[in-house]
Write a sequence for this structure.
């Protein structure tokens, strides 16, 4: 009996051990890091090495080199550090462009430029006939601003490509990095100039032939001085063909305080507010500040001041926190302390994620301008809507890829709207779009104090890299 029990035990033990081992393997399989599966799909071959790192360590960002690139780019500036001033087609802008192209080439990207200086760096996929996935931002900077706005989305995109390359991967769809021309409106008064043209806005292409800056230098002349639009009067060559890109993702600092205040690592943008710009001119009689009595004045300066307050009132009366309005420019002529202003000029920015609500505010501002001009006896020389763009919604498939990447990296995140506009607003007209936000210090932007930590930048680059991997498979 004892002998029979011993034999049965010897037969049972191997079966038990084998079964237990299979259960352990199955359990291990269930807990496999989801980012490893993405990498396996992305590369087209299984990753069997037991030492394959976890998602966080496999997506290794060279943050010290990345910060060095941000710092070096900031030296191409027409204002002293810590501020950055980099105006479209200026000598510093041309040098900064050369720097970015060198970074792209150093990362093994094939580089091309279009007629206005949008710069593309391409990593060819193993199915290059498929529409590519695009990522990038801008590097131009308004006067006396900071060094992170836009720049993080350009050098960070190049680093995201490097991250994937260091992982030994090869994309299915080609991946491209873009540096957009002139996201800021500083020189020619046109925001997102490069992305608007890529979106195929023909009216802009025609208008640029007659557009001049404050020094009466034409756009075409400035572009040629920087090496662009050499033999072209027609800028339609910049327009993207339908289906050129399967997706576009932009990494950017938030430019607001929400992520930092709430201690959240990543913002996933669901919508970009619709911006509109208005130019207004009043003309009065002017006169001597002491000799013309108050009842006899037709003060263009006071008309401008009253309209500025009307902008605030109409925005607040909209009833939505998402409606904003700003009088960013108010100029008086002749600009002497002892002279009643004879002319005034205002430039007004209004934004909202609801296009109809924003347009209603614009109409109320217009009616106020008419009323003020009549009441104060001044002429309303101009009330011109310079641009009136619709909002843009992030694409569900891109949003899903960004959210999945963030979750796999165990980073906290928040879905949010962007009240600032970006090149993504116009790229949404040509491809599915998404944006990734990272925190910035106190929400500061467009000022020298603008700052994002290396940890936050690295987190953003990792999310971008994994998102690009996912979209390359889509």
């Amino acid at each position: 009996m004892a002998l029979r029990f011993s034999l049965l035990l010897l037969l049972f033990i191997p079966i038990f051990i084998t079964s237990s081992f299979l259960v352990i393997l199955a359990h291990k399989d269930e807990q496999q890091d989801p980012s490893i599966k993405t990498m396996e799909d992305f590369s087209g071959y299984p990753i069997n090495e037991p030492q394959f790192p976890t998602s966080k360590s496999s997506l290794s960002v060279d943050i010290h080199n990345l910060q060095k690139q941000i710092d070096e780019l900031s030296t191409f500036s027409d204002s002293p550090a810590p501020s950055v001033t980099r105006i479209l087609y200026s000598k510093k802008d041309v040098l900064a462009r050369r720097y970015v192209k060198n970074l792209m080439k150093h990362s093994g990207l094939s580089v091309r430029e279009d007629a206005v200086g949008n710069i593309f760096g391409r990593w060819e996929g193993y199915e290059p006939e498929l529409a590519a996935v695009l990522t990038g931002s801008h590097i131009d900077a308004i006067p006396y601003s900071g060094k992170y706005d836009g720049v993080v989305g350009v050098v960070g995109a190049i680093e995201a490509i490097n991250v994937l390359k260091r992982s030994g991967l090869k994309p299915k769809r080609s991946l491209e990095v873009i540096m957009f021309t002139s996201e800021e409106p500083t020189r020619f008064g046109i925001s997102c100039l490069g992305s608007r043209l890529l979106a195929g806005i023909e009216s802009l292409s025609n208008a640029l032939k007659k557009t001049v800056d404050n020094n009466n230098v034409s756009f075409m002349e400035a572009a040629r001085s920087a090496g662009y639009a050499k033999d072209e009067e027609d800028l339609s060559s910049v327009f993207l063909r339908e289906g050129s890109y399967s997706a576009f993702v932009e990494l950017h600092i938030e430019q607001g305080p929400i992520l930092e205040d709430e201690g959240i690592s990543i913002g996933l943008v669901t919508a970009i507010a619709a911006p509109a710009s208005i130019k207004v001119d009043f003309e009065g009689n002017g006169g001597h500040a002491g000799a013309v009595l108050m009842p006899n004045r037709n003060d263009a300066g006071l008309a401008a001041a009253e309209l500025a307050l009307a902008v605030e009132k109409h925005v607040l009366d909209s009833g939505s926190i998402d409606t904003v309005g700003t009088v960013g420019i108010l100029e008086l002529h002749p600009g002497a302390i002892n002279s009643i202003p004879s002319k005034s000029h205002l430039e007004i920015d209004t934004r909202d994620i609801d296009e109809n609500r924003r347009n209603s505010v614009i109409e109320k501002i217009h009616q106020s301008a008419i009323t003020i001009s009549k009441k104060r006896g001044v002429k309303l020389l101009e009330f011109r809507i310079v641009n009136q763009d619709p909002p843009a919604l992030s694409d569900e498939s891109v949003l899903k890829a960004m959210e999945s990447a963030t979750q796999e990296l165990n980073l906290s995140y928040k879905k949010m709207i962007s009240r600032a506009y970006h090149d993504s607003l116009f790229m949404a007209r040509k491809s599915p779009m998404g944006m990734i936000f990272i925190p910035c210090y106190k929400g500061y932007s467009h000022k020298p104090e603008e700052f994002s930590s290396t940890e936050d930048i690295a987190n953003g680059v990792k999310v971008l890299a994994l998102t690009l991997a996912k979209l390359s498979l889509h």
In short: The first strand starts at residue 84 and ends at 86. DSSP finds 15 helices and 17 strands in the chain. The CA atoms of residues 145 and 447 lie 4 Å apart.
